[in-house]
Amino acid sequence: FHTIKTLGSGAQATAYLACPRVRKELVVLKVMSQEILNEEALISWARKEFAIQKTINHPNIVQLKNSFEIWEGDDQNSKIIQMYCETEYCEKGELFDLVQWHKGLPE
User: Fold this and answer.
1) How far apart are CA 99 and CA 105, in angstroms?
2) Is residue 42 helix, strand or coil?
3) Which of 11, 14, 49, 82 has the least C-beta neighbours within 10 A?
4) Which of 5-9, 18-22, 61-65, 100-104 has the lowest mean pLDDT?
């Protein structure tokens, strides 16, 4: 991935606008925070979330394209040192920002 700029950061991840080296499209690359990687229960939660998101295919929901992990160590002492997920990029921004800007949406 070639990262272009930081889109935002939160408790769970930092999101970057990125372009995969093998595909010429803009995506969001989320790098999970070290707090998640320090607890096995949170790693398990993240894996379940990724698995569920990969199955969702709806025009109004951002699609998870891929997720992957980087491991360090040998078989006996290996641990995850980084988790990533790649989602589609919505160039017009988040729905939340649109709702705030318009001070609500008509029903």
Assistant:
1) 6
2) helix
3) 11
4) 100-104
The length of the chain is 107
Instruction: Note the pLDDT tens digit of each residue in 58-102.
Output: 988 889 999 999 888 877 778 888 999 999 998 877 777 778 877
- State both tokens at 107: 């029903």
Which spans in 2-107 are helix H? 34-37, 40-55, 95-101
Helix (H) or strand (E) holding 70, with range, is: strand 64-72
pTM: 0.80
Using CA atoms, how far apart are residues 86 and 67, in angstroms rounded to an integer?
6
